[in-house]
Design a protein that fits this description.
two-stranded antiparallel ribbon; Alpha-Beta Plaits; 287 residues; alpha+beta; 2 domains; 4-stranded antiparallel beta sheet
């Protein structure tokens, strides 16, 4: 799970790029301006950034474990250089500070990762909740609330960018008869088969919804009325007869769809004007 999440989380990629950039800038500054500090300090600085990367990517616990190892290794190095080989005559603040920088930087990076992870989780929970509210459980299409929300968004987008879209309303004229014949549960299976046919005859970018028990709606994005009428012909052919499994047996069921169409017009002040025109056309289309 951690490996997969690493590829998905853009914040980890951004954090790693930022650390690499800081490390590269520090190396260049020490190379061209050695008076700014000893190049030997570049090694513990690089180790600190690497430890921050571990804390952010793999979690605070692993980062602190790495910080303990780095603190022990650097502390042992200072003791060895001062007490055994006497290469370091005076232990100044620059050396001592690294013993605190390792765990502190690990804690900061780990806490930052936790904050970002919680924020991502909240966004994911919000998205899942919106899907539960706006999706129809039986077909996976938008429900009435989700449809009108998306329809309004598409209307605003079309007005802003001067694009077009068309609305299709599909009423299953004989749905009440099918419900009486096959019952409530099997009529849901029929609706699912109809939804699958609609999905197959439309694009992924089109907005599909079940807005009542016998009516589906489609928003054909960036499609004018001529293009929408081509889709209507395809839907009439696809929905004329559907095959679905009823009580363990595959049945071919005759569907009587009525389809109303309306395209957005420049003078439309509200998206409901186009929607009402599509409803009116339902009375004239008998499949």
């Amino acid at each position: 799970m951690i490996a997969n999440d690493m590829f998905i989380r853009k914040d980890i990629l951004f954090f790693n790029i930022m650390l690499v950039f800081i490390l590269a800038v520090t190396a260049i500054m020490l190379l061209y301006a050695p008076s700014m500090g000893s190049f030997n300090l570049f090694i513990p600085f690089a180790c600190m950034l690497f430890n921050m990367n571990l804390s952010y990517t793999l979690g605070l616990q692993r980062g602190l474990m790495a910080a303990i190892v780095l603190t022990f290794a650097f502390g042992s190095y200072i003791i060895y250089e001062t007490s055994i080989v006497n290469r370091i005559v005076e232990v100044n603040f620059a050396y001592i500070s690294w013993l605190f920088f390792f765990p502190l930087s690990s804690i900061l990076a780990g806490q930052l990762s936790l904050v970002v992870s919680r924020y991502r989780q909240e966004l994911e929970n919000k998205k899942n909740l919106e899907q539960l509210v706006t999706l129809d459980a039986s077909t996976g299409l938008y429900n009435s609330q989700g449809f009108f929300r998306k329809l309004d968004e598409e209307f605003v987008r079309a007005k802003r960018y001067k694009t077009c879209f068309s609305i299709l309303l599909i009423r299953i004229s004989n749905f009440d008869e099918l419900r009486l014949i096959y019952g409530e549960l099997d009529s849901i299976k029929i609706l699912q088969s109809v939804a699958e046919k609609v999905e197959a005859q439309t694009r992924f970018s089109d907005i599909k919804a079940l807005i009542s028990s016998d009516m589906l709606s489609i928003v054909l994005t960036e499609t004018n009325e001529d293009g929408a009428r081509v889709v209507i012909e395809k839907l009439h052919q696809a929905l004329d007869r559907i095959t679905t499994e009823i009580r363990g047996t595959k049945k071919v069921i005759r569907i009587k769809p009525s389809i109303g169409i309306s395209s957005i017009r420049e003078g439309d002040a509200d998206v409901l004007e186009a929607y009402e025109r599509a409803k009116e056309e339902l009375n004239y289309d008998r499949g």
